Amino acid sequence: MYSLYTDAATQPQSGLSAGGILIIHDHQQTQLKAALHATTNHTAEFEIARMGFEKLAALVGDQAQQATVLFYTDSQIVSDSLAKHYAKHYQKLVDELLAAQAPFQLVLTQWVPEKQNQGAHTLANQALHFAEDAK
């Protein structure tokens, strides 16, 4: 079983976004940070979630077909959209995220408050500060 936490951070004035990915398996953590193409927080949340599943799939390889993933997000729109397989303004992003989840045997999505997503949140903010400094 794998636990996947993702979070995005966006600076509205600059339009910069970044994300954090935290993967936990057998008490081992993999921490990843990434600059994102998204310019709004909602699109950034979808982008980092998709990226998290892509990174996890690359990490586990062929074992994905037998893997259960507990996916944690503090984004209500990502959580709700996955449950419905629909989002009025973000359907393309929902479809991309569902496709990234497809290799796994089972994905259970859980919305969590930001305070329970601190690992991914911290990584996202670190990546955003790095992107701002590099600009």
From TrEMBL:
A Pfam short name: RVT_3
Organism of derivation: Levilactobacillus koreensis
InterPro entries: RNaseH-like_sf, RNaseH_domain, RNaseH_sf
Domain RNase H type-1: 1-135
Organism superkingdom: Bacteria
Any GO MF annotation of the entry: nucleic acid binding
PROSITE patterns given in the database record: RNASE_H_1
Phylogenetic placement of the source organism: Bacteria, Bacillati, Bacillota, Bacilli, Lactobacillales
Name of the protein in its database record: Ribonuclease HI
